UniProtKB/TrEMBL annotation:
Pfam families referenced in this protein's UniProt entry, alphabetically: PhdYeFM_antitox (PF02604)
NCBIfam families: phd_fam
Function: Antitoxin component of a type II toxin-antitoxin (TA) system.
Stated name of the protein: Antitoxin
């Protein structure tokens, strides 16, 4: 069975072990698929991309909470009361 590689570039685990910094630099900020026996086993992504991904996931979760609560009764509060 073939596994899809969800990155434009890939590297073997042995290449990654030899020089991880070089792999990260060569990726130029894009994800890299880490392959073991030509099968993707992990993805290496830049920290900034990871942070953006987590922010988007949090936004999706918050949007779901908003949709769930849309029909609830509103309660008025004053900031001074908090």
């Amino acid at each position: 069975m073939l596994d899809p590689i969800l990155a434009a570039t890939s590297v073997s685990i042995s290449q990654l072990k030899k020089n991880p910094s070089a792999v990260i630099e060569a990726a130029e900020g894009f994800p890299v698929a880490v392959l073991n026996h030509n099968t993707p086993t992990a993805y290496l992504i830049p920290a900034k991309a990871w942070e953006e991904l987590i922010d988007r996931l949090e936004d999706i979760e918050l949007a779901e909470i908003v949709r769930e609560r849309q029909g609830e009764k509103r309660v008025r509060v004053r900031l001074e009361d908090l």
